[in-house]
Design a protein that fits this description.
There is one protein chain. This protein has 10 helices and 16 strands. The relative contact order is 0.10. It is an alpha+beta fold. It is globular and about 65 Å long. Strands 1, 2, 3, 4, 5, 6 and 7 form a 7-stranded mixed β-sheet that branches. The two termini are 37 Å apart. It binds 1,4-dihydronicotinamide adenine dinucleotide (NAI) and magnesium ion.
Length: 341
């Protein structure tokens, strides 16, 4: 029995080792592409491309499924041939990853070109990211989100804020440089805390006036300069609902592309049950209230479309699986269920 166990252990270890080395080799290759401009230019000729138009990703509908096509460099040239200065367009692409076989992936925004020509040539359509993220396969959503954020950053950092001169992108798109001042700009994202507050038996969800009717989510807020995650959580909860956090724990994080690139840092926080009276910040929030276990179970089953009542009001529903708020709510539910079991 021990021999079987040892053989199994050796097999698992060697598999893990091989997995690691694929991953490590891939990360090292991507880093090389960011640092070595000529290697990156060469990689463009064998890479695949995701297309965007004014930050909307290109999707193809096949039956009921939405696919995110990866075009080869040859296919890209065929499309771009229809427009003047085709080669210049390829140079605008940014590196967004690579396959396990080291085939690099790029994203390219063709916003200045006629959308309908590209859509009819490639038989698909440029789709708003707010829709695209929720209809494509789950593994494609983070890729679209990060590609769009990087393209957006390049679009809004074309000039040096010190000299006003144009900045120049490196082939991978991992930075922009102003030749006049020598300043290098790197892609930025804003840290945001998202907190599911609990008083031990209920959790607190809120809605802003801009949310779709009926949608409630966890409290969120941008971190202030100099603040750590714990301070940001305590401050946001105090500001938005007037409660004092007693303890908190980190859950997970997620890149979020709306309204521009954020790093969502998700936490659970506990407030004392005897000091759980909400005093809402009415400038930001329209409603904030406690939800019991049953209401959370019902809300998770509800779709936006089934939330509307006969009298025009809306029953609560929660963000979809792609949003980290959903994960926080699921974790809270599991914890409560385990406690009451
Ligand atoms: N993925 C998810 O599950 C969820 C994501 N979110 C995201 O979290 C973000 C922050 O949530 P809010 O409650 O709106 O933040 P918030 O509570 O900090 O209020 C927003 C205000 O903060 C200020 N602000 C400070 N730094 C900012 C920056 N870097 N960018 C933009 N505004 C800044 C602005 O005045 C803005 O109006 C939202 O953009 C939203 O998309 C929110 C809930 C769920
Ligand atoms: Mg907020």
């Amino acid at each position: 029995m021990a021999a079987v166990y040892q053989a199994l252990h050796r097999r698992v270890s060697s598999l893990v080792c091989r997995l690691h080395s694929t991953y490590v080799r891939k990360m090292r290759y991507l880093n090389q592409l960011k640092e070595d401009d000529s290697l990156c230019r060469q990689a463009q000729t064998s890479g695949t491309f995701y297309l965007f138009h004014n930050l909307s990703p290109f999707l193809q509908k096949v039956g009921k499924k939405y696919l995110v096509p990866q075009l080869s460099a040859a296919e890209m040239r065929r499309v771009l041939e229809k427009f003047p200065e085709a080669e210049q367009w390829m140079e605008k692409s940014v590196l967004i990853g690579c396959s396990d076989e080291h085939r690099p992936r790029f994203a390219l925004d063709l916003g200045a070109l006629d959308k309908s020509v590209i859509e009819s040539e490639l038989q698909g359509s440029f789709t708003d990211l707010r829709k695209a993220l929720f209809v494509v396969d789950r593994e494609d959503s983070p890729l679209l989100a990060s590609a769009q954020s990087l393209l957006r950053w390049h679009d809004s950092h074309q000039y040096c804020s010190r000299t006003g001169q144009p900045t120049h992108k490196n082939p991978a798109g991992s930075k922009r440089v102003c030749h006049a001042s020598g300043v290098t700009y790197y892609p930025q994202m804003s840290p945001v805390v998202i907190t599911l507050v609990s008083d031990g038996s209920r959790c607190l969800l809120a809605r802003q006036p801009s949310f779709p009717p009926g949608m409630f989510t966890a409290l969120s807020g941008f971190c202030d300069m100099g603040e750590n995650v714990e301070e940001a959580v305590r401050r946001e909860v105090a500001e938005e609902v007037g409660l004092e956090v007693e303890s908190l724990s980190y859950s997970a994080s997620q890149h979020w592309p709306f309204p521009s690139s954020s790093l969502m840092i998700a936490c659970h926080a506990l407030v004392a049950a005897q000091r759980a009276e909400i005093s809402m910040d009415t400038l930001e929030l329209e409603e904030a209230r406690w939800f019991g276990l049953e209401e959370i179970v019902e809300g998770l089953k509800r779709q936006p479309s089934s939330s509307k009542q006969g009298d025009g009001s809306f029953l609560p529903w929660f963000p979809p699986k792609q949003a980290i708020a959903h994960q926080l709510i699921q974790e809270w539910l599991q914890q409560q269920t385990a406690q009451t079991a």
